[in-house]
Amino acid sequence: MKVRGRDSLASRCRVRAPRYLWALIFALAPPQVFGTVVHSVGVARDVSGGSIQYIEHHQYLQTGEHLVKYFDPAGMKLVAKKMTYPLLPQHPQIQQVDFARERELRVVPDIGTVRMVTKQDGRTKEYQLPLDEATIIDAGFDFFIRDHWDLFRLGERQVYKFAIAGHANLLDVSITKVRESSDGTTFSLKPSNFFVRLLVPTIRVDYDGQKRLKAYHGTTNLDVKARDVVIEFSHYNTTEQLARPMAGWFPHEQ
Hints:
This protein has one domain (2-15, 42-234). It is built from four helices and 16 strands. The chain has helices at residues 5-15, 17-25, 140-147, 194-199, and strands at residues 2-3, 37-46, 52-60, 66-71, 77-84, 93-98, 103-109, 113-120, 123-130, 135-137, 157-163, 171-181, 184-191, 203-208, 213-219, 228-238. It has a 16-stranded mixed sheet that branches. The protein is globular, with a radius of gyration of 18 Å. The model is unreliable at 10-29 (pLDDT under 50).
């Protein structure tokens, strides 16, 4: 069964607007204890050989900032990303530097539009795309899933617009809850356009019983050897922000 996610979300917001808006205010970061920083560390491995391709380190600060750094297996920084959430959780404002490609990206959401700016090789490209509550910007997907968890029913396909940082067009993507149990839930993401699916096949994301991202199965756009990766996530708390994952979190090739 196919449900237009845009319509179902809009209907839900009209009926329960006050509660929905309060939920957004309190859902800008994963659950935190006062004075802690929540960390998620993902280890990306080649699906064929299992070799480590990169490590991603997410930090969720009490200020509402979401910081991400990507490292190669030797610990060299590949990409740095900063996200804030001035509007909706699924509409992050993004600043990203890709050190390998010498490219900068900015994503600036506003009421009704989102502006994408790319700088590389001395040239600047800028796009402006339409934006509404049922459009998901880049990494806002994780927040969107957790904030609308009960909107997804097992086996039911819903279609949303995705704005991918640095891309000039919105992408129709279907989201389906394909597995659900007490120990976790799995969602699949599939581009609606056949030709896009040839380049970007189905992505699968696993969540644990606490609705924390557990694993990602799909393609990567980082400048690494493997195109298809499996990323497994672990979660930690500290009392302060870190420059990189702690020694025990940072795996190395054996």
